[in-house]
Amino acid sequence: MKLTYLHTIATFLLSFSALGQMQSFSLQEVKVTGGAFKNAQDVDLRYILSLNPDKLLAPYLIDAGLPLKADRYGNWESSGLDGHIGGHYLSALAMMYASTGNAELKKRLDYMVDQLAQCQAKNGNGYVGGIPQGKVFWERIHKGDIDGSSFGLNNTWVPLYNIHKLFAGLRDAYEYAGDQQAKHVLIGLGDWFVELIRPLSDDQIQQILRTEHGGMNEAFADLYILTKDKKYLETAQRISHRAILNPLLQKQDKLTGLHANTQIPKVIGFEKISMLTGNADWSEAARYFWQNVSQTRSVAFGGNSVREHFNPTNDFSTLLKSNQGPETCNSFNMLRLSKALFLDKNDPSYLDFYERTLYNHILSSQHPQKGGFVYFTPIRPNHYRVYSQPETSMWCCVGSGLENHTKYGELIYSHTANDLFVNLFIPSALNWKDKNIQLIQTTEFPYKNQSELVLKLAKSQAFTLNIRYPKWADNVEVLVNGKPHPTNTHPSNYISIQQKWKTGDKLSVRFTTSTHLEYLPDQSNWAAFVHGPIVLAAKTSTADLTGLFADDSRMGHETKGKLYPIDKAYALIGNADSYLSKLTSVGNLTFRLDSLTLQPFYEVHDARYQMYFQTFTQAGFDAQKATQRQQETEALALEARTVDKVNCGEQQPEVDHLYKGEKSDAGYDDDGRFWRNTRSYISYQLQNKDLIGKSLEIHFSGNLKTEDVGLFINERAAEISAMKDKAIVLKVDDNEVISLKIVSENGRPTPRFYQIRLVK
User: What domains sit in the chain, N to C, each tagged with a CATH number?
Assistant: First the structure.
């Protein structure tokens, strides 16, 4: 089945692009046939089918006032982000159906869309959503009553981010599965939103956009592609966040300290809008952002961020120490941006990052046997990851995780009007319907450095077949029907073979690869072993994997096992020439490193691991280890006496501790600390497990006068037991939940609060 929406996009782009514009194939035209990616697709399919559509639909039915068919899921789906997984689920069903043809997926997709259409009809104004008290919330916005921060808009958890998932899911249901009812619901939802924001000024719109809102600008660009109605393109431009766009237009790096995944979808929207308007500046802003994040803020496996925020480009130390490493949602969206820029620029260098991230982050983010998706991937030595479970885990990275493994066929191949491009070396079958060209790729890459491609044609025809010469390849050799073909190109480019092809023609591609050390972008002495495009890591222990498969707690996506001292981690001691010489290959991408065994990181599961190693001369090792040992002892001692903590101003820690507030600001200081203050109030809830927490330490900056700031614990005035070193110490009651409220007593900004710790 041809997908009219996808072809509409292609036709529109060709109207203003030069002949030879790169285009992707539909998922129906590319089938993944074997290897790790096919296994990941199959495992994801089982996870998708294990979810209950009626439970995912429950938030929408509640909002519309329709009878429930099942209770909603718990976890994030019933604690403020109700309905967001339902939108992701539409996308996953549509793309997995396109990739596999599984009839049950289409049945579920049609059912989900029909139920959403009934909710929309009951609401009567085009709106459909699962946001708690949605009608009341949106009416406040329509009237211009706006109080927003990074994740809370009128004390509602990222409502535009939430509804963006539905916009995207309905779009995907139509684009990938041809669901006409989804198109109708999507247009109705878009019209409702246009009317919602019509009375708002541009300043009010920008105030709303301070709160995470996903790719809402992209959603309206897609509506314009779908309908050619200019009001949607105008809306897409109007809801583009200028505080992020303007520095990018000036090529200014203002990203440090920002919540990473809040920004990436906005930039995907900038790129799409630029293609529709011909505004090259917006596309250049997107390219600058991509270059900044992929080259100066990403680690070896392609991920970025620490505790969900962009760390300084010259200091990755917090990333090395944290159990909250790069977030999978970030890489999900960086791949979408990489794909968009590759198709726009016809530049295969974007594929080097795409491929690295696909193999090493996305593939590793799903358990290959049991299923389950990873939120954080720490690079802290000797730490581990947590996997979701279908009945307990409803995090954002579950939503994007459902989608990640449905669409592996999206960029294995691409094409221009007449020519074919082989981009990735993954076992697969291509059926280019418009040209009656079929191509079968057989490969065991990356375990064997070769790939065989066989053509099947309705009739002989002339075209250029282009084979990607990857950046990681030391050398590439291509044989056409057994005869060598000249390379005549360089890495991050294509080897072009132009001739008249016939059925049975065979191309053999051979690579030479090697292992190298890749240092962190901050030029510190931490490095990872990378073989070709594959990041290697070592299993170090299976001890204390607490919470390996997540429970339904608010913070179930975080590891609960202890942090092992970094100064006890394995290190490379010698000189630069000797580090690699310690490796001994034992075959199948496995290497011995003294007592360790290195293997592809995507194979490492159910264990603690080490991916990054410090490199030292012998003299440097002795000196730095002594300093590091002291720092680690102090840091781990503090963690040992901590029962719970909130990093103020950081999105997920505040969400996990049920932040509420009014007239509050948050930011990031030059010293690398996040903060929050208020002219009204802020509040958090901390968990006092086993009642072992005895006091709260509230760390702040500036001058704090107790008569200007009210402090309340469980709604009673708190007793201050000490003030020292820019910290207030409060006594706590023997309660399992400690509710802290901080109030400005004079309506002026309080000092900046950095961290709140409940300690033993």
Answer: 51-239 (no CATH), 515-632 (no CATH), 643-759 (2.60.120.260)
